Amino acid sequence: SATAQVVHSAGRRFIVSPVPESRLKDY
Amino acid sequence: AEDTGVRVELNEEDDGKKASIALKLWVEDAKKLKGKYKDTGAIEFTFDLLNEVAEVVAQEMVDSGFFLECDVKIVGKSIRDRVALIKWRRERTVSPGN
Question: From the candidates A3, A7, A12, which should be mutated to test the interface with B, based on the most B CB atoms within 10 A?
Answer without folding.
Answer: A12
